[in-house]
Specification:
507 residues; alpha+beta; 5-stranded antiparallel beta sheet; 5-stranded mixed beta sheet; 12 helices; 12 strands; rod-shaped
Length: 507
C-alpha cells in the first residue's frame, strides 16, 4: 500500500481550510471594527444620548417644576450617573440656568470648563438658537475641544414650553477605549481560534481520516485479491455505510472468485478428462483395429487357402477351419463386450435380479475352469461360504468369469478364490501370484479401453473392456469393486449387499 504524504492527507487539508476560513473571518472582523465599529458605536451613543435628553426634557416639564431645588439636584445627579452624561440648561437668553455641581478637584474643574466652552460656542451663534426654536428639533453632534484636545458628544433639545435649551453632554473617550479593547480582544480570539482549529483537526482525524485509512487498507488488500481484511467501522453515517458496502463487496468478490476458482478447477478436470477420453478413444480405435485386423486377416488368409485348394490333407483342412472359427469367435467376443459396455453406460440397462446363493455361483464358475487349472498345473485355494444376495445371476457370473480369466492371464503358480462375510455385505476375492500392477495404474485399469500391456500381445488376450464391464455391473448392484497389490501378487475383489441389507435400502 502506497504511503500517503502528510501534506496530502485529508486531516492536513481540512486543517488548512479551517484555518484559512477562520483567519479570513478574523481579518474581516478586524477590518470591520477598524472601519465601521467606532462609527456605529458613535451613532448608537448619539441616539441613546438624544433619547435620554428628550426623556429628561419631558420629565423636567411635568415633574421638576413641582420639586424644590434640592430634589431637582438629586434627580439630575441620579439621571447623569444612569446615562453617563452631564446635564446643562440654558435659558432663552443664552444664560446658564443649571449645571451639575461638582467637587472642586482639578479633573472636575476641567470638565466644567469644557462644558462651558460648549455653551459658549452655542451662545456665540444666536442663529442656531433661532433655527432650533423655529423647527423644535433636537440636534446631536460631536464637539472637539481644541483647548483641551478632547471630544464630547452633545445632544441639544429645545424646550418650547419654557423657551429653554437642555444640553446632555457625554465624553467621547469611552468609545475610543471600547474600540481599543475590542482590538485587544480579537488578538486573544485569534489565538483561541488557532487552538480551536487544532482541536478540530484532531476531531477530523478521528472522525474522518482514521476510518478512511481503514477503508483504504481493506481496499488495498482487496486489490491484491486478499479478502480476509474487513472494515471494522461501526457507524451509522456515510463512512460507516461505505465500510459496510466494502465488506459486502469483499464477500461477493470472494464468493465470485472462489466460484471462478472452482469452475476453473472443474474446467481443468474436464479438460484433463476429455484429453484422457480422447487418448482412450485413440487407444480404443488402435486396439479395435488391431483386434479386428488380426482375426480378419487370418480368416481371409485361411479362407483363401481353402478356396485355392492349398490344403492337401484332411488334417490340415480341419486346422484351417478351426483357425477361422476361433478368430470369428474372438471377433464375436469383442463385439459382444462393446455392446455390453454400451448398454451398461447408457443408463437404460435393466438387471434381472433374483435371490441367489453367491457361494453356489462361485463354486459353479470354479468347476467350469477346473480342467484349465489342471491342464496348466495351477494350484487353486478356494474358500466358499453360502450367502444369499439379490442380483442378476447372469451378470454376476460374467463378473466372476472376467476376474478368473484375468487371473489366468497373469498367474504363475497359484490362484486363490476367497469369500468374506461381513455384517452388511459379502466380499468375493480372486487373487493370483502374477506380477504386481504399478500403483498409478491400479485406478486406470477400470477405465474402458485401458490395457496394462500397451503392446496388446495377443497371447494375453482380452480387449481392455472386461474390467470396465465389471465395474459398471457391480455399481448397478450397489456394490464396490477394486484391485490391490498383495505380498505375493494381485487381488481383485467385488462386494454385494446381503439380502437383509438390500431390503433395508429398498424400503
Amino acid at each position: 500500500m502506497k504511503k500517503i504524504n502528510i501534506k496530502n492527507s485529508i486531516t492536513a487539508k481540512l486543517f488548512l481550510i479551517t484555518l484559512s476560513f477562520f483567519t479570513v473571518f478574523i481579518v474581516f472582523i478586524l477590518l470591520f471594527e477598524s472601519i465601521f465599529f467606532q462609527k456605529i458605536y458613535e451613532n448608537k451613543r448619539k441616539d441613546n444620548l438624544n433619547k435620554a435628553a428628550i426623556n429628561f426634557k419631558n420629565y423636567y416639564n411635568n415633574e421638576l417644576n413641582k420639586m424644590n431645588s434640592n430634589d431637582i439636584a438629586d434627580y439630575m445627579k441620579e439621571f447623569e450617573e444612569k446615562n453617563d452624561c452631564t446635564i446643562a440648561i440654558l435659558n432663552s437668553y443664552g444664560n446658564l440656568k443649571y449645571l451639575t455641581s461638582r467637587d472642586n478637584d482639578e479633573s472636575n474643574s476641567t470638565d466644567i470648563n469644557r462644558i462651558k466652552e460648549i455653551m459658549y460656542k452655542w451662545v456665540s451663534d444666536p442663529g442656531s438658537f433661532i433655527d432650533m426654536k423655529r423647527t423644535g428639533k433636537s440636534k446631536t453632534y460631536v464637539f472637539e475641544s481644541k483647548v483641551y484636545n478632547m471630544k464630547n458628544i452633545v445632544s441639544v433639545v429645545p424646550d418650547t414650553t419654557t423657551n429653554e435649551y437642555i444640553f446632555a453632554i457625554s465624553s467621547f473617550t469611552p468609545i475610543t477605549e471600547a474600540s481599543d479593547v475590542m482590538k485587544g480582544i480579537f488578538i486573544y480570539v485569534f489565538i483561541g481560534g488557532i487552538i480551536l482549529v487544532l482541536i478540530m483537526a484532531f476531531i477530523y482525524s478521528n472522525m474522518i481520516t482514521k476510518p478512511l485509512v481503514k477503508i483504504n487498507k481493506a481496499a488495498s488488500k482487496m486489490a491484491n485479491l486478499d479478502f480476509d481484511e474487513k472494515c471494522s467501522i461501526n457507524r451509522e453515517d456515510e463512512i460507516g455505510s461505505i465500510g459496510r458496502s466494502l465488506n459486502f463487496l469483499s464477500n461477493n468478490l470472494n464468493n465470485a472468485l472462489n466460484s471462478l476458482k472452482n469452475a476453473n478447477e472443474k474446467l481443468k478436470k474436464d479438460i484433463e478428462k476429455e484429453k484422457a477420453l480422447e487418448k482412450m478413444r485413440k487407444e480404443f480405435i488402435a486396439g479395435v483395429s488391431h483386434e479386428l485386423k488380426t482375426p480378419v486377416g487370418l480368416i481371409e488368409g485361411y479362407a483363401e487357402g481353402l478356396k485355392d485348394n492349398i490344403v492337401t490333407s484332411e488334417e490340415d483342412r480341419e486346422y484351417y477351419l478351426n483357425v477361422i472359427i476361433d478368430e470369428a469367435l474372438n471377433m464375436g467376443n469383442l463385439i459382444s463386450d462393446m455392446l455390453d459396455l454400451s448398454q451398461l453406460e447408457s443408463g437404460n440397462f435393466k438387471l434381472s435380479k433374483v435371490v441367489i446363493d453367491i457361494g453356489d455361483l462361485v463354486w459353479k464358475c470354479y468347476q467350469k475352469y477346473c480342467t484349465i487349472f489342471n491342464e496348466r498345473g495351477i494350484e487353486l485355494d478356494i474358500n466358499i461360504i453360502n450367502v444369499n444376495v439379490i442380483a442378476d445371476k447372469y451378470r454376476i457370473e460374467q463378473v466372476l468369469n472376467n476376474y478368473i480369466n484375468n487371473a489366468l492371464k497373469y498367474v504363475k503358480n497359484k490362484i486363490t478364490i476367497n469369500m468374506i462375510e461381513k455384517e452388511e455385505e459379502v466380499v468375493v476375492q480372486i487373487i493370483n501370484d502374477g506380477e504386481k500392477i504399478c500403483e498409478d495404474e491400479l485406478d486406470k485399469i477400470w477405465d474402458k479401453f485401458y490395457k496394462i500391456d500397451k503392446s496388446r500381445n495377443r497371447k494375453a488376450g482380452g480387449t481392455g473392456l472386461g474390467l470396465s464391464i465389471v465395474k459398471n455391473i457391480i455399481e448397478l448392484h450397489g456394490g464396490k469393486c477394486g484391485a490391490a497389490n498383495t505380498e505375493n501378487g494381485v487381488e481383485f475383489y467385488f462386494t454385494l449387499n446381503k439380502v437383509q441389507q438390500y431390503k433395508n435400502i429398498a424400503k
